[in-house]
Every structure is written in structure tokens, then in C-alpha cells.
């Protein structure tokens, strides 16, 4: 099972390979990143790491034993105890429970390490796999939305109970 790791500078080559190998697969369900993303990848990676240092975002990758990246799970727009969750899993690793496991782990990190009390996520209505992952990991539908011209669903997850449980286990206490 790949290990969830916080994004680091040395992940760049494997992350670029992951994004390139899965570009068409991802574009079938989420907007394509565009050529500029790939052309300026090194600068983009450095910018993400700098943003992560500010606490405004938390980026994670799923890394196999050989350093290959099988997915990413990100928390972005961190503010006021909340963040947006997004994730991508490689085509060859799909339908193996990896997304569910990774999202669960990031929810625990969000509550225990990052001090968040809630998360938001969204997916298109024609992506039942993502809808199932979000439902299995405690997200509840919060309303219909539009994602790049496609019908979608917004979700939320209250982390209060998870945060209290994590705090009790680790001996940490967080104010709500």
C-alpha cells in the first residue's frame, strides 16, 4: 500500500510523471490542467511548496516503495478552520480502495495536525466513484453546483468529532 507523505521538493520528478501519465484519464472527469501546467512544472512545484509553508494549503502524495506516485490528496484555501479537499488517483490504482484510505488519512491529519473543523469537496454528478469515496469518508451532500459547465454536487464534512477523538488519543486539546 502506498504511503501518504506531505509534498516535498524531491517528489517533483515522480509527481510530474504521475500527472503526465494520467492526464487524459483525469481530463475525463475534471478540467485538464493545460499545457502551461506541464511546461512550467518546476516553478509551479516550488510555488506550491512555498504556499504550503504559509499554512494556506497542505499537499500530500501517495508514494509507492519505489518512489512512484499513485495519487495526491490536497487541502487548499485553508481559512477559518476549514479547507477544500481535492484528490486524484492514478488510473492503474483506481478501484482498489486507495482513494478512500487516503481521504480518511487526510481527514484525520486535517483534524489532528492542521486544527481544522470542517472540509468541503465537490465532484461532478457523472463521477459516481468520487461520490462514493466522499460518502464513505463522512462527507454529506450540501447542494447542487456547477463545475466548469457540468452539473455537480458540493459536499461538507464536520471534523469536530474526529478532532476531539484525535486530540484525546494524542493528548492534544484544540479549541473549537
Automatic annotation (TrEMBL):
The keyword Acyltransferase applies. The keyword Hydrolase does not apply. It holds the Pfam family Acetyltransf_3. Keywords: Acyltransferase, Transferase. It comes from the Bacteria. InterPro entries: Acyl_CoA_acyltransferase (IPR016181), GNAT_dom (IPR000182), N-acetyltransferase (IPR051531). Residues 2-160 form the N-acetyltransferase domain. Belongs to the acetyltransferase family. RimJ subfamily. This is N-acetyltransferase. It comes from Streptomyces lasiicapitis.
